Amino acid sequence: MGEWPIATDTYLEADGSVRERHVLPLAVMPEFFRGFAEQLSAELHTAADTAVGVLRWRSRTLGPRRPYASRGIHWSLDGIKWRPMPSSTYVEVQDTAHLEISEAAARELQELLDANESEPLAHELFREAWDQRTSNPRSSLLIGMTALEVGIKQYIAHCVPDATWLADNAPTPDVVRMLREYLPTLQPPGEEPPLPACEAEVLEVLKTAVSIRNTLAHRGADVSRERLLPALRAIRNVLWKLDEARGHAWAAQHLFPSLEENLPVGYRLL
């Protein structure tokens, strides 16, 4: 998706000054100013989070992570007249899926139910992670990584039943290394081929996600949207490929087309 063109005459007077009651888009500012603005915004948000966190801790107060909204940063040279800082905005539109099930898909569903199959826990956890991607990005990444680890353990137990106890109870090793070196060596029962090696792009995104997860566990840092969404898409694609390797051929139809693009929701015929 391309960027919308920015008509600066919408925001500027003929002499180049910013019009009253208008906020200049950050994208039209020089690169050094964008870096300054982003750093300033991050520092102010951190200060607010720290102050609110200490207040909640001291007052035994629960609630959402950020119980406040920002009207943006304002600046002033004299402390009297305040002007808004240039800022960036984005809009995320979420729609609801309308699903029609074909006769063939209905038969597949019945076969899954007859075999006492249920939605894997890894997919349940992923839905929770995806649902929190906007409101709680940190929790979203942590739950998403947990979903990946659970999916890997369930796949190992499927391929090596004698290792079920070990897979369920042992700490999860490096998931990137397991996807690259171990899981492709396992032979699923039946005639399904082994899990193919993950794409280099997926492994690189997951390697970054592991690093961010470890930082979260020690310092509680924020997770940027630019890092979170590709990580979640990579996790879901791995889960679908694990399902496909377990004999569910239909799972291949559900892969994200890329790590930068969501699947269309809207109306679907299954």
- Quaternary state of this entry equals single chain
In spatial order, strands of the major sheet run 1-2
Average pLDDT across residues? 81
Task: Tell me the overall shape.
Answer: elongated
**How are helices and strands ordered from N to C?**
HEEEHHHHHHHE
Radius of gyration: 24 Å
- Contiguous low-pLDDT stretches (5 residues minimum) are 1-5
- The total domain count is 2
- Total beta strands: 4
Distance between the termini: 27 Å
* Main sheet: strands, sense, barrel: 2 strands, antiparallel
Strand content: under 5%
What level of helicity do the residues show?
A: 40-55%
- Which structural class do the helices and strands define? mainly alpha
Give the helix tally.
Answer: 8
Give the helix/strand layout.
Blueprint: H1 31-59, E1 74-75, E2 83-84, E3 98-100, H2 103-114, H3 121-131, H4 137-159, H5 164-169, H6 175-182, H7 200-219, H8 225-245, E4 267-269
Parallel strand pairs: 3-4
Antiparallel strand pairs: 1-2
Summed up, what is this model?
The protein is built from eight helices and four strands. It is mainly alpha-helical.
List its salient traits:
about 270 residues; mainly alpha; 2 domains; two-stranded antiparallel sheet; two-stranded parallel ribbon; 4 strands; disordered N terminus
